[in-house]
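Much of our argument rests on the idea that a fold can be written as discrete symbols. In the encoding step, the backbone of a single protein was reduced to a row of integers, each denoting a local shape. We regard such an encoding as a compact summary of how the chain folds. The record that follows shows the chain in one-letter code together with its fold in token form:
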Amino acid sequence: MRAESTTISGVGSGIFPSLIFVHGPEQKTLHIDHTPFTVGRKMDKDLVIADPRVSRDHALLISENGKFFVEDQGSKHGTFVNGERVDRKQLEPNDRLEFGARDTIYAVFHPQHLTSNTARDFLSQISEITDLEKLTIFLEAARKLNTTGVLDEILLTLLDVTLKLACAERGYVFLKDKDGTLKLAAGRNSKGELLLDDTTISHSILEDALRSNSEFLLTDTSRSLDLAGRQSIVAYDLRTVICIPLRKLQVQTRSRGADEAAPTGEVLGALYVDSRFASRDISKVSGDILHVVAREAASLIENARLVQAEEESRRYRQELAIAASIQQSLMAVTIPEVSFARLYPRNLSCKEIGGDFYDAVNTDEGLAVVLADVAGKGVSAALLASTLQGMINSQLTAGMPLTEIVASANRFLTSKRIGEKYATLIIARLRRDGELEYVNCGHVPPLLICKNEVLRPAHGNLPVGLLADASYESDHYSLHSGDRVVLVTDGVTEAENAAGEFFDNERLEATAKEGGRDEILNAVSEFCGSTPLTDDCTVVEMVFSG
């Protein structure tokens, strides 16, 4: 049951208090013509807020001796006035009330609301209100702008308040894109309808305002003596035209005095409104309010753009993480177990996804190992690496000769128009008898550690993907029990320390002579110290056990 209520005195004279209730993008005005005025989630309340944070019987608005109070009714999530939680509080003009649900759902209290026998809306009478009342409108708009982080809502709020203050018929916001081109970002008329066509505005005034970085305030063009070049004003019978640049404000003080400052700053776009009816001359106070609205809106637009950029960056990082997960799944290597050899691979990545990959396949001809480094970093290198890995893996499984495998990869890359993309790679295949065959395509030469001696064969071919008619040859070496083969990417030899020195081949050979995969990567990490890796480091160690 609704609480027993009494009529508020003064309603007969057309004066009564009101609440402007805002729920996301929607807004409505509620007249408080009785007391208590009930608020809650139940359908019998005067103000029903369908949100789980709002209690069924949340709060009351009460009139006592001509003053209004809000009283919380023991709600779970509280009643707030201007951000402060209250049990009971006297209301002042333009107080912001929140009932459990914060930020996007709120109400603004007005002690008096004008009406008439023809039920004209308050905003339709705005041309008759004072500058002080216009300032109230501005403050309400500022509150709404400050709680809005979405660019489209900021622009529409800016248009709404400007149309009200200037008593204009339609308004537009134009913003510059990344290349400096001015584009229509939002449009709305005084009826609240969206406008998508800007062909009938005065583009000459818009261009002049941006070129001079100054405002145009024409409130009755019929009294203007200089309309040369303003064909659209005459053609479309525009009587009121206002254009204000939106700029990130910076104040430069002139030498004549601290109180004389010239507003400057990067122009983000422009606020444009016009009407076919002559508006009253905009007073200095109203003009100042318009300037402040434009300035604050420009700041909020810039902030919203930064938020959008951060959100795009967040989404990109999220997609990159997904891509990294997919790449890791696709390129996951199951190390084959064979009786005559052991493999010890390890990778240190400098990015979430990259162009290094290794693979191992046990074939009838022996244990094959692949190590490749695709030129570049990031998504494009990762895609190409995944493609190459799949191609080489299938051909190794099919028992194709090593030279034909790299020749096939070279034909594939050179036949595709994928820019300057190539790969260095080495494929080594070890047979049960210790016979090692390998093809080195522009890669770091392998290390053969035989009886405590480090050998670096000079054999090599061109990287795959450079020349379509490149030919490839393999080399052979006989291993004995206990001999090791160490393959690395150039991220190991070209790792830098704080002094800009490379880890280089000499350190690599010395470390590989004394230890294996883990010792090499530990030595690289110790050498670099706090200097981050600039390329992936991959080491694959193969030990022949005979």
Q: What stands out?
A: The CA atoms of residues 434 and 479 lie 5 Å apart. DSSP finds ten helices and 30 strands in the chain. The first helix runs from residue 131 to 146. The longest strand covers residues 105-114.
